[in-house]
Amino acid sequence: MPTGVRLFVSTVNVQNNAAFVAAPASGAGSAGGNTGTVGYAQLVSSETLTDGSTASVFFPAVTGTDVPSTGNTPIVEIPVVNGSATAVWEVINTNPNAIETLRFGVYSTYTANVASNSPPAGTASVNLSFAPTPTAAFTAAAGAAASSSLTIPRFIADTSAARNIQTINICRTILLYPFVTNVQGFDTGLAIANTSTDPFGTGAQAGTCKLNWYQGASNPAQGDSGTVASGTVYTTLASSAAPGFSGYMIAVCNFQYAHGFAFVSDLGARNLAMGYLALVIPDPGTGSRNASPACQGISGCTASGENEGH
Asked: Which domain does 203 fall in, by range?
């Protein structure tokens, strides 16, 4: 989990994120449990704790402390330690005559603070497996052999790669400078203004801009503006940032409300000069500029992926 993200899970299996599966009529966890035909699982404190010894409670259940903003599914926060969290549910009611599917709700929340880049960009991923899994070094071969110490039943951990379930992208601005040159007696002055300081109470932000140069072949290495403080303007010359360059440049600025200006002239601006505002490209996030977010992955969609402004 990315730093600063809080994680919650449903204490029982759900029909969907807003409706939970009701406990068996006889009472989950009672001596009359495991009756009926509805699969039912309860969040437990750990897969390694010993079950209870009384007839009324035979598993270490975790009680819900809250409900999500939509629906009334009981949920509880799972501590995130060093970027990882674990939830274990114990199946306590099942239909032995059917193949069952159990679903569980997962919820996350965080307080965004763009001025301090919190939470930082990152991706949350998940692995699922049956329990118990005796140790991290446990193998299928070891589980297949007779053992007086391993649990019964026992399973190996999920061997598949973790699946991404949430991505947090930083707030940023992408600027396109369509023509930048410093050849044949010309040069281009470039400016990037961090306008997150304003009279409207906008949170001040600061960040760097990565300068990406494109001229078809032999593209210069990516440049870096260094930190552009809120309320300041970064300036450079193309001849300094990318000598011998003629093409276009895309600046990826790690703050909102960046705006750009370019001034192309002959040396000394004696005969020819022109200026233009950089275009602001909608942030494609982790996707592509080929199509707008509403079109991504939809067959036949032809909407443009760009809607530039200044």
From this structure: 173-281
